[in-house]
Design a protein that fits this description.
The protein is built from seven helices and seven strands. Helix 5 (about 155-175) links the parallel strand 5 and strand 6. About 45% of the residues lie in helices and about 15% in strands. The structure holds NADP nicotinamide-adenine-dinucleotide phosphate (NAP).
Amino acid sequence: MENQQGGRTALVTGCSRGIGRAIALGLARDGFDMVVNDIERQRADLEALAEEIRAMGRDCQALIADVSDRAQVHAMVDTVIARSGKIDAIVNNAGILIASTVENLTDEQWDAVMDVNAKGTFLVTQAILPHMRARGYGRVVNIASIGGKVGSPEQAHYAASKAAVLAFTRVLAQEVGEFGITANCVCPGIIVTEMGRTNLADQANVDKWVAATALRRLGQPEDVVGPACFLASDASAFMTGQSLNVCGGIVLN
Ligand code: NAP
């Protein structure tokens, strides 16, 4: 898909590392000019990613914003619109996972996970929608999780936040389809990242997840790139309100 998206601009949230970083590089390879986002504590890694993307010949803005903070999200979107005039595609990737059983779960842990994963997806999407609507074009790609469909012990709040993203996307698709905007989800399985390691604390857990996967291996961030770039492109023009499981065959449709 090299340069297929020339002239288009995409934003990926929470992308200084992990799945988001791989997707940002994949979109840049496809020709998108990029806006890369993460939270203040990831500034150095985010700047390094932006440099890597510029070295590929793409324009790239690195913008710090906490996706769960309405004012910061709007400041980020205003900055992009002022400089680039548009955002063609967004990938709502920023997410956190704090493991806890339901019995031990605190209000603060519940709120933190909901705020980043569910509210962050809502806030970023809402801020960008008027600009997509005005141009009659947009691709919204939300990184949910197979956790939002099945879920694992100690992740009830995480699973609930991802189920919220899936439901949000289904309704969004119905609201914005007439304006040329599609909204879809990618549901990764067990992907080896900083977050993914929460599921891989010891060899017994690694073995359990490998055995649960039809392809008999864990995922790498690059495994998520193709499906995410597909949903951000015109190749998926007649798909909306859908979710793609990218899990090596843990969940089977
Ligand atoms: P990761 O390596 O932890 O990367 C997530 C990034 O998002 C981090 O840089 C993180 O910064 C950043 N972030 C956290 N809170 C933020 C906020 N409020 N605003 C902006 N950025 C923020 O995670 P990953 O494994 O790549 O996960 C990416 C997405 O895939 C997440 O939505 C996750 O739920 C989903 N997913 C992952 C897996 C998996 O197995 N890895 C499976 C299914 C779904 P800090 O680290 O400093 O907080």
